[in-house]
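re: that complex we talked abt at group meeting.

here r the seqs, copy pasted straight from the sheet so there may be weird spacing, ignore it
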Amino acid sequence: MPSNQLTEEIIADLKLQNDNKPLYKKTLFNQDFVFSFISREEYFYIQEWLESNPNIKISDIETKIVDEALKWPMLSPAEWALLPAGAIPTLAKHIQEKSYLDTTGAGEYSDLSVETLVDYPAGEELTEETKEKLKKSCKHTMRVVKTAGSTYVIRPMLRPEYTYLQKVEAADKEIEGVKTCLIWPKNVDWNNMGAGVPTVLATQIMLLSGFADPSEVTEL
Amino acid sequence: MIDHFTYDESGRRVYNINILGQEFLFVGATRKDLEEALQFPQQWEMEDFICKRCIVSPKDFDLETCLAGIPTKLAELILDISGMSSEDTNTLQKEAQDWIVTPSGKMEVLMMGILHRPLAEIRNMDPIEWFKAAGAAQLLAVTVYGLDIEKYMSLNPFDSKPTAKRAKMPAANNPSGQIIPPSLVEISPKDLAKWEEENQHLITQPIIKKHV
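got the structure back, here u go
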């Protein structure tokens, strides 16, 4: 079994190399692992890879996720083979959670066994003054969503906006939809966040737009 | 009269739902609506079409200004109550079979056939009108068409044990031995004449013969 232990020097080096992107540490079977999130770009790359390899196994997907997000250590196939079988699936699960790709936990799942080395950068603060301005400028219902260290203000999507999105060709329709309904902040770096963050926002927009209202039908 | 509120002017059941605080009244889609709706290549086009056809209230419901999910949600509900899934179709079929063997179901079928009124119109009648129409249908059925009302009312076409004597088709045209009215099968004039001869007790009046 490999015995690479994480040191302060290695952490400092990883922070530099990763341009202060979020970094997490997980210790499994006495081995430290450092990983970041899967970005939207990496997520689409994995999706494409999946589409072109339809007969792939779950274990291959997990390995791919770990390949994309693991920052340290760089183990050889022989070293991976020495680790217990559950190492890669466990890491893949934590990477997905921290990328907000886990729909059940939606990234908020706080597993104490995963240590945050570098957190998501705190987003712009939504002040009372901004809130009042937004209320005056937007006639729709608005909702404040706090996710991945940032605050977002969204509004519901209108039917013409939705049908337009269905018609147009877009590389990432989910982000296009979120951009349409994101009132604040205006400048968001969609590639520098967990791949699932736009999905979290899109889900909230869909809920706000009446796609999943729990009301019941009654016969008059 | 609760019926007054349960049907729209064309006699269809009206349903109610509250989505995000907005009240909607809608009716189920007709078979024609569903056929047309399924022609649309895009899901959203189908949803918009279904909503245009089936939303009763608000009258000023505008697809250009409404929230994106409302037509989707409403179309989903409308398709659901219209029996679009195979499960729903089975349920509707079972309900129809249950209804048709009830005395009121049989009477309504008779009213449809004799008075040539659509079912929705019959179901929308008030009780006074309904009983009058039922009486008129029975009178015409017995006097003009020669129907044995007692036998008709005791018939259960879905029961494996027939409650009234029923006619069997000639084996050549119906090898399964199922009871099928002559109009629904390919039948030669010779076989038809034979069938009529054997089933004179069912065909008592010339007018029925003409229909056959």
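couple things i noticed - The longest strand of chain A covers residues 23-28. The interface with chain B takes residues 156-163, 166-167, 206, 208-213, 215-220 of chain A (CB under 8 Å).
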